[in-house]
Every structure is written in C-alpha cells, then in structure tokens.
Specification:
Layout lengths: L2 E3 L1 H14 L5 E9 L2 E10 L15 H14 L2 E10 L7 H6 L5 E7 L7 E8 L8 E3 L1 E3 L1
Length: about 140
C-alpha cells in the first residue's frame, strides 16, 4: 500500500524531527484508506514519553494518544500509523521499533542529522505485520 502525503504535511514532520534533534521525535499520521492507497490528511506531532533522555526509542504520551484518537473521530479519518525520527541513524526499523510496533499500522521513519528540516536525509515507511516476519517497506508518494 502506498502512502500518499503532501509536501506541507511532510514538512510538518520534518520540522518536528529537526526541532527535537538529537532526540527522537514522534507523532501520528492520519487519513483515508481507499483500496491500496493511504492518503495522509492530518499529522499530529506528539510528545515522546522519554522526552530528552532517549535518542533510540519513543513512546507517544498517553494524553497525546487520546488527542490523536479524538482527532481521528472528529475528522472521520483513520489513524494510518505513526512517524518517528532516528537521530544520526538510518531510516530502518530498529529491534525496539519492531518489538514495540502494532500490526497493520504504517511506521514512517526519518533519518535526521541536524536541527534544520533540510537535515532530514531519508524517509521510509514500513508495515510491521508481526514480530516474526521482516518489516515490509511501503512506497511514499509525495503529492
């Protein structure tokens, strides 16, 4: 399933990742799932429960998860998945990412090298169907 995201939504994610660097940023991607396409219509930059103590893991604050759920219901849109940054590390799932993932959600990972949105060097999205199989890469279409 491809992820279709506009430049302005992607810019929100990049800006968030750069602002939080060198720590992991995280948030939700929401939108409409039609057939094989996941179109992102909203982005929710969240707070990492680990705040500024972790550059290698994330967990969205419970109050932000509640706000994400409310946004989804109010906008009649789906929680398509989540994004997070990998400071100074490739945009590939870590063992922690796989272990903490939920099936069927998309996980967008950004490799970030500095405090400017232009310092995001790579973005990939993955489906993590279960803890036994390898993550599946999704195509990202910037529209």
């Amino acid at each position: 399933m491809p992820i279709i995201i506009s430049n302005d939504k992607l810019d929100i994610i990049k800006k968030h990742a750069a602002e939080i660097f060198p720590y992991e940023a995280c948030g939700a991607i929401l939108g409409i799932i039609e057939g094989d396409n996941k179109t992102i219509t909203a982005v929710f930059p969240a707070n990492n429960r680990y705040k500024k103590i972790a550059w290698d893991k994330f967990e969205i604050e419970p109050k932000d998860m509640l706000a994400i759920d409310k946004l989804s219901r109010a906008g009649n849109i789906e929680i398509v998945g989540f994004y997070h940054s990998h400071p100074n590390y490739p945009a590939i799932p870590s063992s922690y990412d796989v272990d903490a993932s939920w099936p069927y959600y998309s996980y967008m990972i950004l490799s970030v090298k500095g405090k400017e949105p232009g310092d995001v060097s790579d973005i990939k999205s993955y489906l993590m169907p279960d803890k036994k199989n390898k993550p599946l890469i999704e195509t990202i279409i910037i529209a």
